[in-house]
Amino acid sequence: MATFEDWTDIMYTQMFGCDVYKLPFRTHMCTNPKALNWLPAVLFISFLVLSSFVVLNLFIGVITSNMDEARNQLKLEKEENAREQNKKAEPIQDREELRLNRVTQRMNFLIGNCSAIQDELALMQEEIREIVEEHKKKKGQSVKGKEFAAHDDQSTNC
To answer: Where would you find the membrane-spanning parts of this chain (predicted)?
Structure first.
């Protein structure tokens, strides 16, 4: 009866009695016909209203749970898309960081080499002074400071 199929036949049988409102498949069951007037109509209609609310509530519950599930799935998809976007952004950042690290390493290497070259140049200048002084002493000449001043003034910055 909650499906609303042929509920009126059962209600009329109860209201008018099985001898007045006969159902072809229940004639052998009609042994004590008795009409109950309007009481069955009130009971049947109240039962149908309540059962329709239950069925409606079930439909609303199913729809609500499906909407909630769809909302959760959409949220998960958004999070996954955000993670994928972050993964796409990470290689770009990684490439930029790698490039920056390479340039920094090269710069540090060149600075180290420049310092080594400056140290080497200073040693070479000192050695040249010593050689020139020895050479001048052998010839008996004094060392002129102007000759080396020109070398000292030259920039040895890398």
So the answer is: 38-63
Of the listed ranges 31-40, 59-68, 145-154, the least confidently predicted one is 145-154
The number of folded domains in the chain is 1
- Compute the 3-state secondary structure of the chain and give helix, strand, coil in percent, each to the nearest 5: 80, 0, 20
Q: Is residue 32 part of a domain?
A: no
Query: CB–CB of 136/143 below 8 Å?
Result: yes
Q: Which domain holds residue 46?
A: 38-130
User: Best-predicted range by mean pLDDT among 14-23, 112-121, 128-137?
Assistant: 128-137
User: By three-state DSSP, how is residue 63 classified?
Assistant: helix
Contact between 53 and 42 under an 8 Å Cβ cutoff? The reply is no
Q: pTM above the 0.70 mark?
A: no
Residue 146 has pLDDT above 50, yes or no: no
